[in-house]
Design goal:
about 350 residues; mainly beta; Beta-galactosidase, Chain A, domain 5; twelve-stranded antiparallel beta sheet; four-stranded antiparallel beta sheet; 3 helices; about 5% helix
Length: about 350
């Protein structure tokens, strides 16, 4: 519901939005996936150092030694869509509010966990000639915690990813972020999403960002704060696509919602030291690829007292079990970005 100026004034033109509100009708049940076409089957190459799964639209390569998705190549073009592995991730570049409330020191175990993990198991299960399931279990020994990522891949190239975090028994600090991280090929510069926007928004900073369909270049999503820090997040996202100039790329669909952040920078470049050693945006090198976070979410940014107040409890990712799921679909030239969910 939107209230607009009926006529112009000296300050506001006719049609200017004076006020707006949205009312959620609920997400409803997820639509079933479309049926597979007759004759579609998977081809498997299972070796000690790699697992290659060929579908009708893409070839995916996993590393049994690392427990990661390494490659996503479209067929028949053989176009590579990934520039990095898909990995669990818990950290965000600290904001000024984070520094004010001591988050970089308090939550430092999650920075370590984002850099160091132990692969416990990698297993493949053939559900049918048209579907396989891959389970990857990582542990984080100092935290006595673990993550399990389940990949369920169909012969048409639809990949459902379900990610579960289980904390250890000892009291742990809150999680700055819970999600998965990868890097996209340099050509995938065009972003479209159905979710909150158009500006950046967070768990405790999103009521002024209406749900809508938005588009942006990937390198314009982040906000150039004077001091480099977390920015450019989008919440309550139904789906987000990353495509090249011909419309080829990847579509990520939440089940029902996800959060994402994307930038042509590496999160590790923000971690120069614990005392804000990176002073200016130009201190962070621009990379040729796009770093992508597909998340359950982040702890809120806090700062109710202008600087330093911790996020409210209702906007905090306390260390408990979380599970979320999303679908990855290949987009070929000319296809509209519409989820199969």
């Amino acid at each position: 519901m939107t209230a607009l100026r009926k006529s112009s004034t000296e300050l506001l033109p006719a049609g200017h939005t004076v006020a707006w509100e949205q009312f959620s009708l609920g997400t409803g049940p997820a639509k079933p996936l479309p049926p597979l076409a007759k004759g579609e089957k998977l081809k498997l190459l299972n070796r000690q150092d790699r697992l290659v799964v060929e579908t009708s639209h893409a070839v995916l390569t996993f590393s049994p030694l690392k427990g990661t998705l390494l490659s996503y190549r479209l067929l028949p073009s053989q176009k590579e869509l990934l520039a990095g592995e898909l990995l669990p991730h818990f950290w965000r570049p600290p904001t000024d509010n984070d520094f004010g409330n001591g988050m970089p020191q308090r939550c430092r175990p999650w920075l370590t966990a984002s850099q160091e993990r132990k692969l416990e198991s990698f297993s493949l299960r053939k559900i049918s000639p048209r579907e396989v399931e891959i389970r990857v279990l990582f542990s984080y020994p100092p935290l006595l915690s673990r993550t399990e990522t389940v990949y369920r891949l169909r012969a048409d190239g639809l990949l459902r990813v379900t990610h579960t975090f289980t904390p250890g028994g000892d009291p742990l600090p809150e999680l700055p972020r819970l999600g998965l991280i990868t890097r996209l090929a340099p050509e995938l510069k065009n972003v479209a999403w159905l979710g909150r926007g158009p500006q950046e928004n967070y768990w405790d900073r999103k009521s002024g960002a209406p749900v809508g369909l938005y588009r942006s270049p990937a390198d314009r999503l982040a906000h150039p704060y004077v001091r480099p820090q977390e920015s450019g997040y989008r919440s309550d996202v139904r789906w987000v696509s990353f495509t090249d100039s011909q419309g080829t790329g990847l579509l990520f669909s939440g089940s029902p919602l996800l959060c994402f952040g994307a930038s042509p920078t590496s999160w590790e470049d923000y971690e120069k030291g614990p005392n804000k050693e990176n002073r200016h945006t130009v201190d962070i090198p621009v990379r040729p690829w796009t770093e992508l976070h597909i998340d359950y979410g982040q702890t809120g940014v806090g700062g109710d007292n202008s600087w330093g107040a911790r996020p409210h409890d209702e906007y905090t990712l306390f260390a408990k079990e979380y599970t979320y799921s999303f679908l990855i679909q290949p987009l070929v030239e000319g296809e509209r970005a519409q989820p199969s969910l």
